[in-house]
Amino acid sequence: VPEPVLTNDDISKLVDTNDQWIRDRTGIRERRIARENEFPSTLGVEAAVKALQVANLAPTELDLIICTSSSPEYIFPATACIIQDQIGATKAGAFDLQAACTGFIFAVNMAAQAIRSGSIKNALVVGTEVLSRFVNWKDRGTCILFGDGAGAFVLQASDIPGGIMSAVMHSDGSGADTLTLPGGGSHFPASELTIHEGKHFVHMDGKEVFRFATRVMGRAVLEALEQVKMTTDDIHCIIPHQANYRIIETAAKYLKMPLEKFVINVDRYGNTSTASIPIATVEAIQNGRLKSGDKVVFVGFGGGLTWGA
Ligand code: UT7
After folding, report:
1. What pLDDT digit, counting tens, does each position of 35-64 carry?
2. Could you tell me if the CB of 209 is within 6 A of ligand 1?
3. Catalytic annotation on 101?
4. Nearest-CA neighbor of 125 among 165, 157, 95?
5. Does the Cβ of 23 fall within 6 Å of ligand 1?
6. Distance, first Cα to last Cα, the chain
7. Ligand 1 and 210: CB distance under 6 A
8. Residue 101 Cα: closest atom of ligand 1
9. How many other C-beta atoms can be found within 10 angstroms of the C-beta atom of residue 190?
10. What is the Cα–Cα distance from 133 to 201, expressed in whole angstroms?
11. How many angstroms does the Cα of residue 21 sit away from the middle of ligand 1?
12. What is the mean pLDDT of the chain?
């Protein structure tokens, strides 16, 4: 994550809000904001290099790089290609996958399937965000939520049982308008009007997304478990997309699981979209909460609408 911290008190100087409201409704206390010279590729490269070190793998051994971002560097080329160049992954094919905040789950599944098919051996999956540049800092309904950061996984072919055991991916495009960044694409190409109308910012129907998220999260966890004939009792912990503490709380109730079984760091980083699951995973490993052999469910939801586990 980038170093600069933006607290709730800082935001209360920009819009009509306060620390208490933000903590009560979201669980967020602070988030990180990228410096001017930091981009999704900058943060993504840092995460990628660290992941390769942990995996003890040379970048030239990578066959595939999937980057997923809700705040990509450009419409094209893919942020994945910029990362590929900067880490020196000369052999790897690289592309971006767009599934909003669910991107990391979809990307990990796609990389795992490519490995399982036998066509590749080593893959890098990066979730990276500088969403702060797409947030309307005059809209208190959204600017309190998002933060910047990146995370990365290396996936490798292996005979050891385990790895990505199951996955579910879901979409419902009928909810496309619920969470969107409409400006700058070919539907609303950049113009004075699109800028005037704020189309280059994140637009969200918060209540609707909240309802959707609480409806799908628990179900997706159970679907992923059913595929491998497991129950919530078999898993060590759940690492959910970090959007709102209350959404995670509702999922825990639905699943009849204690909240302690959920890895939660939304208080310190806000919603880092595609980066939230890998950041939370790395923290769980670093603080000893997650060990080799533990069974984990990742679960996420977001624009599209998309959700998966
Ligand atoms: O990756 C997926 C990304 N998105 C999400 O996960 C978002 C899901 N949605 C949410 O997390 C919640 O809907 C929010 C946190 C965005 C909003 O919380 P809420 O409990 O749904 O609040 P609300 O929109 O129903 O607003 C309640 C009241 C309203 O005032 P009135 O009409 O009751 O007088 C709002 O105007 O709170 C007001 N309000 C605020 N007050 C202080 C809305 N935003 C703020 C704010 N500070 N930042």
Report:
1. 999 999 999 999 999 999 999 999 999 999
2. yes
3. yes
4. 95
5. no
6. 24
7. yes
8. 1
9. 12
10. 8
11. 9
12. 97
Q: What is the pLDDT of residue 214?
A: 95
Burial code (b: 16+ CB inside 10 Å, e: under 16) for 248-260 equals bebbbeebebeee
241 in active site: yes
Q: Is the CB of 178 under 6 A from ligand 1?
A: no
Q: What percent of the chain is predicted at pLDDT more than 90?
A: 99
To the query of whether residue 271 is one of the catalytic residues in this protein, the response is yes
Mapped to the 3 state alphabet, what secondary structure does 178-216 carry? HEECCCCCCCCCCCHHHHHCCCCCCEECHHHHHHHHHHH
Residue 38's pLDDT is what?
A: 98
Give the closest residue (by CA) to ligand 1 atom 7.
Answer: 206
Tally of CB atoms within 10 A around 127: 34
Among protein residues, the one whose CA lies closest to atom 8 of ligand 1: 210
Q: Decide if 167 contacts 224 (C-beta within 8 A).
A: yes
Say what the pLDDT of residue 8 is. Answer: 98
**Which residue minimizes the CA distance to atom 47 of ligand 1?**
17
Task: Assign 161 a pLDDT band (cuts: 50, 70, 90).
Answer: confident
Residues 6+ apart with CB under 8 A from 73: 39, 40, 41, 79, 82
Q: Please give the pLDDT value at position 162.
A: 87
Q: What is the pTM of this model?
A: 0.97
3, pLDDT greater than 90:
yes
User: Binning pLDDT at 50, 70 and 90, where does residue 303 land?
Assistant: very high
Bond from prior residue into 189 cis (ω within 30 degrees of 0) = no
Give CA torsion, residues 48, 52, 53, 58, to 10 deg. Answer: -130
